[in-house]
Write a structure and sequence with these properties.
globular, Alpha-Beta Plaits, single chain, Rossmann fold, 10 strands, 4 domains, alpha/beta, about 550 residues
Length: about 550
């Protein structure tokens, strides 16, 4: 989804364009509006903006001056200058700017929408061309890439070793030619790719390489980053601002990363046909704290995204349900593999691996002790996962997990482990459905109670701690209707109720449902109800 910001100090123009574009391509274009350059810069600081449609001649700061500030926030942002001025000086200055266009207000809505459509097409072509170019490059030799990945995975698992030798990181980075600054903190991103079923190991590797190329396309220039595959098979990135970025790893850099992750996610869907769930640290962390922050992101993603999907979540450092203390796992490769499948919601892989382990264990009739150890390794892993996921009380009978003697046979015991695992998968699915329903109900209630306030996608996402693009998809998936259409229905419903009160002026009704300009409310109501507000009120008096 792309984001369009309309900026004009004339309310009637801003509101009119907002109404046109708000219904132009609701699933492709998220529309915001501002009545001054200052308000526009506030939008820039809050979320990624892809296209700005702005007047040139505005009090305080002109559109040309605004465009210079825009590039500092979002360098890829395109600007369309909309003005009543036809003087050569304005047109010449606008034409000289990179990624900028110039449209006269007198040319009408059709010309404006055509221009924005051209800009959208240009953006997508640029994305496609960048991907093709990136595919032709090789950034590192294969052996060096593998060595770097091995070392960074080592740091993720045991970053505490850095406390013992503060110069170790600088020496290792230098030897391995790792392009990150060991003296600066780092932002972390964990990505879980929803691979199509039936793909081989090699095919998954090719998909992961394509995802990395998309990542490099969007982050090159403004950020230094390094991507690896963690021990669970998920993608993981380390990021720092490039020398060209201002402000270091401050809150705007985090916003820049989050906004750019939307583009990475949408390109993965558009070009590769797959979704990727992303978890982002809310602030940069020191290198010696990598292990704990990495564990936080894994915990956050497991709780928020279930088996995967196009979601972007940011670690707010709030306590995660059921995760107050770190449980330990049996130090076994089998337990690690099963745990990874269980926590990531990979049901089929888990069941297949469990059945293979079970078959192997039951064949060891001459080594009963090994069979017993295998049972308790898996049982302890399941018991730990139930605690880590906060599922105590949500799973059926788990009392026999650590009591092997309560089972009539080893076959029954391993069958019991499988049933407990199935209950965990079912509970995760139920919790995710319940959580989704609760979130949507809360959003709907907020909309109904705040119709006179800002109900932009960005504002709703901020209030409910969502990424804007994900909120749009999530809401439609759960409610079967676009978020903007739901808001319009609520506004029409409330307006009809208020118009029954003849003591209220039509303008007062419009203000109550979010329309400051009476003419904008009239146009909106007539389009939705087929009558103007006054005509609707007159029909009520006839009944």
């Amino acid at each position: 989804m792309y984001r369009l910001l309309i900026v004009d100090d004339e309310d009637i123009i801003t509101d009119g364009l907002y109404e046109v574009f708000n219904r132009y391509q609701p699933e492709r274009l998220d529309v915001c509006k501002a009545y001054s350059a200052k308000e526009a810069l506030d939008w820039m600081s809050r979320t990624r903006i892809d296209i700005v449609l702005t007047d040139i001649a505005m009090p305080g700061m002109s559109g040309l001056e605004l465009s210079e500030e825009i590039r500092k926030y979002w360098p890829r942002c395109r600007v369309v200058f909309l003005t009543g001025h036809s003087e050569f000086e304005y047109a010449y200055r606008a034409i000289q700017m990179t990624n900028a266009r110039y449209v006269l207000k007198t040319e009408g809505y059709a010309k404006v929408t055509d221009t924005v459509q051209d800009v959208l097409d240009d953006i997508e072509r640029a994305h496609h061309d960048s991907l093709l170019l990136e595919q032709s490059r090789e950034q590192l030799l294969a052996f060096q890439f593998m060595a770097q990945g091995d070392y960074m995975r080592h740091l993720l698992q045991n970053s505490r070793v850095l406390d013992e030798d503060t110069d170790m990181l600088a020496r290792e980075f230098s030897k391995l030619d790792i392009g990150l600054d060991p003296a600066q903190p780092v932002v972390l991103v964990l990505g879980r790719i929803s691979y199509p079923e039936g793909r081989t190991y090699t095919e998954r590797g090719e998909i992961l390489s394509s995802v990395r190329r998309i990542w490099d396309t969007y982050f090159s220039g403004r950020a230094r980053s390094m991507g690896i595959t963690d021990k669970h098979g998920d993608a993981f990135w380390f990021l720092q601002p490039s020398e060209l970025a201002e402000g270091g790893t401050d809150s705007h850099f985090i916003r820049f990363v989050e906004g750019t992750l939307e583009l990475v996610q949408e390109s993965c869907i558009g070009f590769l046909g797959l979704s990727i769930g992303l978890a982002l640290s809310s602030e940069a962390c020191r290198w010696e704290s990598l292990t704990r922050q990495y564990e936080r992101l894994r915990e956050l993603q497991q709780l928020r995204s279930g088996s995967g999907g196009a979601i972007i979540v940011r670690d707010g450092f709030e306590p995660l349900d059921g995760m107050d203390c770190k449980a330990s796992f049996a130090d076994s490769q089998t337990a690690e593999v099963l745990r990874a499948y269980l926590e990531s919601g990979r049901h089929d892989e888990f069941i297949q691996a469990l059945e293979e382990v079970t078959a192997s264990a039951l064949k060891m009739s001459c080594k009963v002790q090994l069979t017993i150890e295998t049972y308790y390794t898996i049982a302890l892993m399941l018991h730990s996962c139930i605690g880590r996921m906060g599922m105590h009380g949500h799973i059926g009978d788990t009392g026999k997990l650590m009591r092997l003697n309560d089972h009539p046979s080893m076959e029954e015991a391993f069958g019991y482990l499988k049933r407990v695992a199935e209950s965990i998968f079912l509970s995760k699915q139920t919790q995710e459905r319940d959580r989704a329903s609760l979130i949507v109900d809360r959003i709907c209630q907020y909309i109904e109670e705040h119709l006179s306030e800002d109900l932009s996608l960005v504002r709703l996402a901020e209030i409910h701690y969502f990424n804007p693009s994900y909120l749009s998809r999530f809401f439609k998936q759960e409610k079967g209707i676009n978020l903007s259409d739901f808001i319009d229905k609520c506004r029409v419903k409330k307006a009809k109720e208020m118009l029954r009160d003849n003591d209220l002026k039509v303008r007062e009704v419009g203000l109550s449902v979010g329309y400051e300009a009476a003419h904008s409310f009239t146009r909106f109501f007539k389009k939705a109800a087929g009558l103007t507000p006054q005509e609707y009120r007159d029909t009520l008096s006839l009944n």
